[in-house]
């Protein structure tokens, strides 16, 4: 019993610190955005292209998931991957910090950002697998616990990021995060996986990558899983987000200060933290379908609000641009991730034992690919409405298109698996 308690504490320490560090990635990425715009002078479309292309390693998460399920190192198949991913991130950001002092090229910077996100992907796959393995109970607090840890990291990362950029330079954020990732590496290698008391999975010698791929394929053929993932991916991919354009509009056209942009992201992360607390206390028993649909509707409302902001409606009634950016922009950016919490909990419940790493990696990969497609569509939309560095007259029209695309997925929310509905259908058949 004490052993189980110790294992639970170690899991919370490993995952709490790990998710905190991943949430803190907003710290160097805020610096990267300002470095690209202020030092390398990229335009809005190139900024959004780089932001989304850097996430390409996230798409390969199913590969990392299958490998981590099947390939063990010294009898461990989660902790070594977390350590390796943390080391990759440390090397990448420290290299960027060094190169940023000279005339670094966009190509070199992009390659190191890709390498950093490869490390982050590997860490996330292993972390998500542990959450799935240890958090299968219907009322487990682990998913909301790691969500809150990640949100806390995001709050501090974005708050300190804005201050660091204004006080020192954007390059300072690269160095600090590189050192933090290095600390995560050393912390992780000192934890033995056996001490976590994770549920026993089939022996690696009797499985192998081929068998895990076959298991994943079988799991994905289950309608309750495949349709839910399809809705989640489509509801994101079909929305052409204009985040890079909005960043440029706020900082270059409106002249919003770097520290204020950082604080606005903090507000969004605080909203994510409060969402995690609210979910854990009051909403765990609520249907994931209802929660996800409500979040999607709220997103549409906020996109319309952005449209009014760009049109100058709020300015006309006396609301300063800085106030709107501070309290609304960060929340909208975070809202796109709100539905991940109830959806992850749903997938954790549906995931068969022994396939946690593979399935959760596939889910996160599908969501990552959807965000990349969404970002690329945003670039196309910005071009279509003829938004340029000097001309933002078509920006409001682009936001109107985005709002319509956010609403469309609400029509087919029946694709999301609902346990109560399934039970009722089962009773009727009997």
In terms of quaternary structure, what is this? single chain
Q: What is the H-and-E element order?
A: HHHHHHHHHHHHHHHHHHHH
Question: Approximately how much beta-strand content do the residues carry?
Answer: under 5%
The major pleated sheet works out as: none
Q: Enumerate how many helices there are, as a single number.
A: 20
Unreliable stretches (pLDDT < 50, length at least 5) are none
Please report the total strand number as a whole number: 0
Which class best fits the helix and strand makeup? mainly alpha
> What characteristic shape results from the CA principal axes?
globular
* Cα end-to-end separation: 41 Å
Rg, Å, rounded: 22 Å
**Mean pLDDT across every amino acid position:** 85
Helix content: over 70%
Report on this structure:
- It is a single chain.
- With 430 residues, this protein is mainly alpha-helical.
- The chain contains 20 helices and no strands.
- The protein has helices at 2-23, 26-39, 44-53, 56-59, 61-70, 79-99, 106-134, 142-167, 170-189, 209-220, 223-237, 243-253, 258-283, 288-311, 313-316, 321-338, 340-350, 356-384, 395-407, 419-429.
- Helix 6 (79-99) packs antiparallel against helix 9 and helix 13 packs across helix 16.
- The model has no long low-confidence stretch (mean pLDDT 85).
Task: Write a compact overview of the structure shown.
The chain is built from 20 helices and no strands.
